[in-house]
Amino acid sequence: MSKCPGSYINIGKEARDLLYKGYGQQPPVHFHQQFIDINCDLSCDVTCRIKEIVPGLGTAFRLIAPYSGKVELQYLHDYAAITAGTGVIANASRGYDPMISFSGVVGSTQVFLGTDIVFNISARAFNRIDAGLSLRFPFLEASLTLNDKLDTLRASCYHTVNPLTQTAVAAELKHGFSTSYTSITMGTQQAISTSTLVKARVDTKGKLGALIQQKCLQKLYLSIAGELEFRRNSRNSLDWIPKIGMTFSMRP
Q1: CA 111 from centroid of its chain's CA atoms
Q2: What Pfam families does this protein's entry cite (predicted)?
Q3: pLDDT digits over 175-188, tens only?
């Protein structure tokens, strides 16, 4: 049996990265500017990780400006991992609230389950309660998670078609218990060269998206993403709302 993957965020990570990573999903609080009819949103995500301070014990620092910042301490065992952290999270009326977080996973690389909890100390309430299960087979990676304080069910799958060209497909089914609304998102990706990756996605909410990622330097990546959202107006005809985003990232 293989070792535990080490973190709750690994549950459904492959499908989530294909469908959403690089598409410019903004956190709830971010820098916003409006120029005539153009809206501009800016945020910065920085992560610094030290894998092992001592054997089995690591630490990490993450800053999402201006949304949140936190420090985490992780204990990693062969078949279990526990992460505890503290930090601040932005509040529109009070500035920043202190919070504590806890996550844990148990299992192996093939089958593992976990939970992720964030508690807001000032509000004395849970900001996040998530739980998930991951199954990995040679031909398919699947996951089932409960998010939004267990109010949203997500089922996702990911399949690698050709590892040499990074060709892969993914799909996600999302159902909200309180809203009784269900949506499906499907996407694909392929490398057209050693330094260029293209992705596309579509969902049942009327959104079409495409992305191109270019490796500029050895560790610097540039992603440009576009999205079209179709909505019905009062005259029962379709309006389309275009969006475009740009992301720079540095990877070790």
Answers
A1: 20
A2: Porin_3 (PF01459)
A3: 999 999 999 999 99
Residues with Cβ within 8 Å of 32's Cβ and at least 6 positions away in sequence, in order, are: 39, 40, 41, 42
Q: How far apart are the first and last CA of the chain?
A: 29
CB 200 within 8 A of CB 190: no
Quote the tokens at residue 228. 């079209």
Alpha helices in the chain (DSSP H): 13-20
Within 10 Å of residue 160's Cβ, how many Cβ atoms?
15
CA separation for the pair 159, 18 (Å, rounded)? 11
pLDDT digits (tens, 9 = 90+) for 33-68: 444 455 555 667 777 777 677 777 788 877 776 677
d(CA 106, CA 132): 11
pTM: 0.81
Which residue spans within the chain are E strands per DSSP?
A: 31-35, 38-42, 44-54, 57-65, 68-76, 80-91, 95-107, 111-120, 125-136, 141-147, 152-162, 167-176, 181-193, 196-203, 207-215, 220-232, 238-250
- What tokens does 246 get? 């740009």
Q: How far apart are CA 86 and CA 100, in angstroms?
A: 4
Say if residues 132 and 113 touch (Cβ distance below 8 Å): yes
For residues 40 and 5, give the distance between their C-alpha atoms in angstroms, rounded to a whole number. 37
CA distance 240 to 227: 10
